Amino acid sequence: MEKLTFGMIGGGKGSFIADLHLKGALFDNLGTLAAGCFSRNYQKSLDFGESMGIQEERIYTTYQEMAKEEGKREDKIDFVIIAAPNNVHYECAKAFLENGIHVVCDKPLTHYSWEAEELKRIAEGKDLLFGVTYVYSMYPGPRFMREMITQGKIGKIRLVNAEYLTDNLAVSNDELGGNMAWRIDPKVAGRSTCVGDIGVHAQQLIASVTGLCMDEIWADMNVIGEDRVLDTNANVIVRYKGGAKGQIWCSNVVVGNNNNLNIAVYGEKGCLRWFQEDPDVVIFGELGGKETRYRMGTSFRSIGSSEIYRLPAGVGEGYYEAFANVYREFMKALLSKKNGNAYEISYPDICHGIESIKFVEACLESNENSQWVKMK
Description:
Blueprint: E1 4-9, H1 17-26, E2 31-37, H2 42-51, H3 63-72, E3 79-82, H4 89-98, E4 102-105, H5 113-125, E5 130-132, H6 140-150, E6 157-165, H7 178-181, H8 186-189, H9 194-210, E7 214-222, E8 233-240, E9 245-251, E10 260-267, E11 270-275, E12 281-286, E13 291-295, H10 319-338, H11 350-369, E14 373-374
Parallel strand pairs: 1-2, 1-3, 3-4, 4-5, 6-9
Antiparallel strand pairs: 6-10, 7-8, 7-14, 8-9, 10-11, 11-12, 12-13
């Protein structure tokens, strides 16, 4: 079976999110890790690369060197995974695109929408694919919800509600672990912590499930916690094109919540609800009080895409599978493209990344001026 080769920025020993990227990219045996710059410390990068069986000459000191040298090779990597902190994303993605290498980047894509738009122009100009890892929309549950909505099961959408609640910043700054400390630093995280880090997941999940486009938003962003300058809690009201209304509450300081992402979509005839902490169940409510709980992977799945269900009924689909679904869909498209065949963009792409950055920017503007802001 033909395989792709890929490289990584980030992902050395002790990494969290980059390790999920790596496992996701390797999950379906469609790709092989062939190059990387895994750490700013070259010795650590070298040690990790060698432990993965990578040739020393393809373990690089900087992402700039890696993009330039890989771009020159006849056997250059097919794509790169950017799993470093936020402040690296724009320049790193730009370097690889300019050297003719497809990109998958962690979210948020960039700090500013003009940067994301520039990346899109470069990718399109060089005919390159660009994926962004909004993993929650790649769970079977949200995919099933989208198909139910497309089939008209709940009628025209009236209201949408999404929450992403955690307590990972409820402690003092001194108690934060290394994987969380940079998220409150504007030099690394950018202009927003809460909305930029987890609020965009709720926003993108709504967009993916419903197909709704934001028209206007009103945001109230709060800085909760001593010696912090970026938001750790936010409430956002959304007016969607077509008349639907929505609310998004995201927070890093809600004690007792671990990874409480949930979405509810209310239509004229029914509603659909999904909770990430119970990810294999979609609840379908109908007028008159009837409620059906659909469990992913069971016999009803003819309604949805059978390929997205990886495990037997009753065995939980989880975060690793969701990451793997992003990479499988991206790599399937890239393999088809390489072979000159038609392909489908069935993964979160750069357009999703741009929409999320514009969402963050609108929230910041609304919060600063206490007014409705039109989405651009």
